[in-house]
């Protein structure tokens, strides 16, 4: 077996097949592989990359595995790279945040992976290992290629169609050579979900000054929490107003369902109509306090008034500081919902 230095990064599944064959040194991806010394040996700047003690340099995981093990890679190893990896990458990468998920593309990749695993399952049905009676580079290559599929996306409903492949995968990852590299016993995706649920919650991130100030503010209370329940559902009226005729349907619905004991009507008029000499000035005043309004009038001839529907019998504006913007610039009157004048105004 060739001795030397393997350059890669932690949890690189492409390097696992070489890990099983040799113990690699520490390597910091993103720095080591961009140094002039590294680029002189490996101009492609790719990892995993291997430098033998004799100075021989080679990159690409399959080539490294063959060189390190002094073993020819059988067709099943090439099959892993050419068939399993492309579909697996399309299916896996969105779950790892590497690429955006496209539903149709993912479904196609799942079906392609199903077609690939079928012949593999047939092949290992009468075999313990892919080639011969012991673990070979072919087993290492295929198992390491399947590892993230089993860890991340192969749910029981998908796996059950390939019992021989499942058995072969579990047999291999529990071999001493695999355990030495993979550490804890690797478990299929569904079992890992259960462990995640039982895991301790991650510590909260430290808040910055702004977040601390917001968190220190007292929680706002619902100003209407103490009010008794009312039969008038304002949201239902809003749906009528938004979706049906605003003249023939919405007003009759309002008066038919209005709860005069639980709600009140208020009229507000701007106290300084001479100040907004331009229509845009009136509009700015309106949008400072109200939403979804239409301005009628012309320059030097406009006035602002509005009818409010409030929960309870008191003017609701003073109940919350957030509502009090500009409200003192208006004169307020409580309306009698039973009067014909009020109904015409509304």
TrEMBL record:
Assembly, per entry: EF-1 is composed of four subunits: alpha, beta, delta, and gamma.
GO terms under cellular component: cytoplasm; nucleus
Keywords: Elongation factor, Protein biosynthesis
GO function terms (MF aspect): translation elongation factor activity
Ranges where the GST N-terminal domain occurs: 2-76
Protein biosynthesis in keyword set: yes
Biased composition (Basic and acidic residues): 185-197
Name of the protein this chain belongs to: Elongation factor 1-gamma
Family: Belongs to the GST superfamily.
Domain GST C-terminal: 66-189
Record-linked CDD domains: GST_C_EF1Bgamma_like, GST_N_EF1Bgamma
Function text: Probably plays a role in anchoring the complex to other cellular components.
Domain EF-1-gamma C-terminal: 220-346
UniProt KW Lipid metabolism keyword: no
PANTHER family assigned: ELONGATION FACTOR 1-GAMMA
Residue span of region Disordered: 185-207
Species in which this protein is naturally found: Nyctereutes procyonoides (Raccoon dog)
